[in-house]
Amino acid sequence: MRSETDSDNDGAVLERLLAGDEAAFSALVAAHQGSLLRLALTFVSDRGVAEEVVQETWLGVIKGLKTFEKRASLKTWIFRILVNRARTRGARDGRTLNFSALQGPDGDSADLVERFSAEGRWIQPPSLWQAQDPEDLLLRAETAECLKSAIASLPENQRAVVTLRDLEGIDAQEICNILSISETNQRVLLHRARTKVRAMLEKHLKRG
Amino acid sequence: MLNCREITERASDFIDAALPWHVRLEVRLHLMMCRLCREYVRQLALVVRTLRRLPSPEVAPRVNQELLALFRAERE
Prior knowledge:
The structure holds 2 protein chains of 2 kinds. Chain A is mainly α. Chain A has 2 domains: about 5-90, RNA polymerase sigma factor, region 2, helix turn helix motif (Rna Polymerase Sigma Factor, Chain: A); about 100-205, Arc Repressor Mutant, subunit A (Orthogonal Bundle), CATH 1.10.10. Chain A contains 9 helices and no strands. Chain A is elongated, with a radius of gyration of 20 Å. Chain B is built from 4 helices and no strands. The interface between A and B is large, with 55 and 42 residues.
C-alpha cells in the first residue's frame, strides 16, 4: 500500500513538474535513472539499447505528465512506461520470449525435487553457510558477481520480478501494476527466481 | 503436516509474510522441529537481503541536455 507521505510528496512533485520546474525534473531523473536502466536491462541485453529505452521513457513521462491520473504512484507510472517500451523494443529485437511460454508446468521448474525423497524429506539437504548477514556474504568479492549472473540467467519475467522486488524493494502490489501480472503470478515468479538464485549461490559457495 | 519439500515451496511467501495464517503456523511448527529447513529458509532470506545491497548500474550524473530541452519545450 502507498503511504500518505508518498502520495503527498507525489502531489508536490507533480505540481512543480507541471509548473515547468526544471530542478524538480532533474531531481526526478536523477532519483530513478539507475533503477530504470537496471530494469531496462532485464528486457534488452544491450546497454546502449537499454539507455535508449530509458530515454524514450523520459520522453513518455514529459508528454504524459498532464494526463497522469494519480491512480498509481508517480514512480509506478514511470516504471510502467519503461516496461511497455522495453517489451516493445525487446520483441522488435527478438529478445523477448513469450510471457506465457515460460509458464508451462515444468518448463522452467525451480523445484528442488531431486533433493527430496518421495515422502518429501531432504536427501541432499542445504549445505551449511557460515554467513550470518549480507556483509558476511559480500566480503567475498565474487558473491555480488555470482548473484548478478544468477539473475541474468533467469527467464525474463522472473528476472523482472526479482529485480523489482528484491533489488529495488518495490512492494508486490506495485509490481503487479508495473508488469501487468496477477498477484499469484507475481508470487510464483518470485518464488522460482529466488529458489534458483539461492541454489546458484549454494553451488558457488561450495566450490569455495 | 507439511513435509520438507512443501516448506521449500512456501519459503518465499513465508519470508514475505504472504501466507494465510494457518499455513504460516504450519511452517513455523515445521521449522521448530527441522533444522535443515530452518537453514534453508535462513539462506533464502539472507539471499533476499543481500540482493537488496546490489548497486544499480552507474549512470552519468548530469541530466541529458536533450531531455531538459524537451521538458522545457513541452511546457511552453
